Amino acid sequence: MSYRLDPAMPMSAALRRVAFGELEIAHASLASPPELHSGVHSARKCLKRLRSLLLLIRPGMPEPVFASLFDRLNVISRRLAPARDAQALIDAVNKLDRDTVSGPGDVTIQSLRGWLTKRRQAAEHNLERGTASDAKRALLELRPAFAGLAVYPDDFTPLAEGLRRCYRETRKYFRQAYASDDAEEMHDWRKGVQHHWRQMQLLATCWPSELSARVEAARSLSQTLGDDHDIFQLCRLLATPTMTFGTQEETAAFLKRCRKRQKVLRKEARAKGERLFIEKSRPFAGRIEAYWQIASGGAAEPVVHLHKEDARQDNVVAFGELRTPRAS
């Protein structure tokens, strides 16, 4: 199923269709042991997409329902994180080795790569021992909760407000990151950019040519910020007193390469961010809402058929013990 909302469908039904699709993909990704590592990566991407969807529709949901679903997705993602995080740092070492001039820090790179490989193997062993099975069970338990997913009013209004809030927060993180030059602030900005990229994916059907280009721009920025964060993680690992990956001189040379690469990445990210987030939040969200209204007004038929769970005739959507009125 496509991670796209259909303008021709009632909004709540379109949201459930997308959510069910992501849950199914995540579960299937963890069900193939020979491909477990790539499956974990795929499943975690589905969980991130679901969190971005929830943030987009948050203004139209009861806050306890949003908080419960968001927390449950976070718990599953944290269970799967160690194996993927270990591989991400190996990739970061390889990128640094490829993108910077070799020198005295090479010994540290080799030692660090070997330690990270052992760490990844241990994490994969834990996956095989039951972590993946626990995650699959938790995903199945989430499906009934998402079966009642609904927004009020049942149109684009809450999404426009959710988009405005997320976009505004991301612009704020951008300013704070470069005012403080703090790695954690940069990481907050990266998370905001990731949500923005995925929310643009969800809404791309209302103007594919413009929003698909925005998706690619935000994805590229997210990758740059991700490389920056991975280097920060490597530096923090080397700064741990109990960890030794080379002599003091070799470690210092490696850290110098890291700082040099980070400087390049942050300059690149700033230029991309200034273009992507130049518009203020209210006019940006208003413009996307106008695109959606035009698209939904011209869409005669749904692009996909409803799930049977979506074909409700009543005017109330059950959500656990809570019942939320749906706009007629």
Which short descriptors sum up this protein?
CHAD domain, 328 residues, two-stranded antiparallel sheet
**Percent strand:** under 5%
Unreliable residue stretches: 300-328
Helix content: over 70%
- Report how far the terminal alpha carbons are from each other: 27 Å
Main beta sheet: strand number and arrangement? 2 strands, antiparallel
Total strands: 2
Which fold name corresponds to the CATH topology? Answer: CHAD domain
CATH architecture: Alpha solenoid
Short description:
This protein is mainly alpha-helical and 328 residues long. It contains 9 helices and 2 strands.
Structure description:
The protein has helices at 11-29, 36-57, 63-99, 106-147, 157-180, 183-203, 208-239, 248-276, 281-298, and strands at residues 316-319, 322-325. By secondary structure, it is an all-alpha fold. The protein has a single domain, classed as CHAD domain (Alpha solenoid), CATH 1.40.20.10. The protein has a two-stranded antiparallel ribbon. Helix 1 crosses helix 4. The protein starts with 10 loop residues before the first helix and ends with a strand.
Describe the secondary-structure layout:
Layout: H1 11-29, H2 36-57, H3 63-99, H4 106-147, H5 157-180, H6 183-203, H7 208-239, H8 248-276, H9 281-298, E1 316-319, E2 322-325
Antiparallel strand pairs: 1-2
Helix pairs in contact: 1-2, 1-4, 2-3, 2-6, 3-4, 3-7, 5-6, 5-9, 6-7, 7-8
